Amino acid sequence: MKARNAVTLLGGALLLAGCSHQAEQEFTPAGPVAGLQVAIGDCMVVRPAPTAKTTEEGNKELMTALATALISQGVNYLGRAATAAGEAKTWTTQGARNFQATASAFPQCIQVVRGQFFTEGPGQTAWSPPGNSGWPSNTKAELDARGLFLTGMPDFLFEAQIVPSQDLTSFAIRPAIATYLTPIDTRFLRPGKERNIALFFAITPPGTKPTLDSNPGATLVLGTLQPASTRRYSVNGPVTSPYESPWFTLTLKDAYKPLTLSVLMSETQGEQAFLAFMGSLLSDPKVIAAANADLANQLVPPVRQANELAADTKQYESDSKREGFYLTVREKLQDCADAKDPTAMRKAAKEAVSAMRQYFVTDTATRSPKGNISKSLIARIDVEGTASSLKSSCQSVLKGLPED
Questions:
Q1: Residues spanned by the domain of 230
Q2: Which of 14, 39, 220, 400 pairs with 304 at a CA distance of 20 to 30 A?
Q3: Which CA distances in Å does 383 have to 123, 336, 342, 379, 380?
Q4: What is the mean pLDDT of residues 190-203?
Q5: Are 244 and 385 members of one domain?
Q6: 3-state SS assignment for residue 324
């Protein structure tokens, strides 16, 4: 009897399996995603900072000036903020955006938006920012153009300027406008929606995490915001803003890399809880050490002088290496061009290519790259090609090199 029941059950299962295999599955479009999204580039609400260079020639000056920065620095709180938030009953959400600066287009503003987003294009639902908030009437279209496809009114909307220093060696993030409508979440026993808000920024090159201490970072404390409120900040003034982040730096080498801007937004309920959250964050020994080193570099002349001397010494060493590699490149290319024996010609060409690669690496790492040798120029010498083509390429590359 048990055996018969087992066979019956097995047959039924096979029949159902067959039916389910034949049935067509129906797919429905997935809904929007909730979270924080970031844009970096042109400004929406405010003008570019007055010290920013908005012309192509001005941007070249800005990017060249970045080469004088000693190191990439700025105390990065993002990783520790995420850890401290879990201990301080603080809600967090995080977003990121890739960007790459060019000589004619250095980013001028950052937009940070929290809400519901479509993933493949703008929605048809029309919406406008709250009245008298200071956001333009075409905010939806402006955000759509930046790839931030909100399904409707955002929960949080923020814009900040990227402000270069007067000597064009450092940057700060200066808040311009923050509109807060709805908190990330609420607690059953504390349904209030007032929040203390802070934003933590990190700029990272490929292959590194935003929590890495050595990545440039910036922090903005927006303070207490009520739902359905907007806070405007003074911008474009002749002096720095007391609300902007501390200065951070990017070297020219970093600035031309593909970069990622990561943003962590924290919301804390209650002023005391927020003070505890920030206190826990700022009392971290690594943060104190990094902040003290940064302050010492700025405020203590002997420390700054020592750092500048170390940087200058390193730069002189790099310049000497670069010059040595360049002399070797010209010498070996000349040997290749003059050689009668194919074996000697190929040996000289290989040594020339090796020196060219060493020059390229060293030159890229200096404060003021000369750019006399590029990857495409190195690729023009095919050491495995025929003797005649190899001689011709050595002659051509040598002729195109400056005497320097």
A1: 33-284
A2: 220
A3: 56, 10, 11, 10, 9
A4: 87
A5: no
A6: helix
Predicted pLDDT at 186: 83
Instruction: Tally the domains of the chain.
Output: 2
Predicted local distance difference test score (pLDDT) of residue 2: 44
| Same structural domain, 107 and 146 | yes
189 and 70 housed in the same domain: yes
* Token pair of 225 as six digits: 């915001």
- Report the distance separating Cα 247 and Cα 223, nearest Å: 20
| Cβ contact 147:117 at 8 Å | no
Query: Residue 373 corresponds to which tokens in the numbers above?
Result: 């040798």
The pLDDT value given to residue 19? 47
Which of 25-34, 57-66, 187-196, 381-390 has the weakest average pLDDT? Answer: 57-66
Residue 173 lies in a domain: yes
Is residue 293, in this structure, part of any structural domain at all? no
Give residues with Cβ within 8 angstroms of 396, minimum separation 6. 380
On whether both 92 and 226 belong to a single domain, the answer is: yes
Instruction: Record the tokens describing residue 62, joined without a space.
Output: 């800005």
The whole-chain average pLDDT of the chain stands at 78
Residues 237 and 234: their CA atoms lie apart, in Å, by: 7
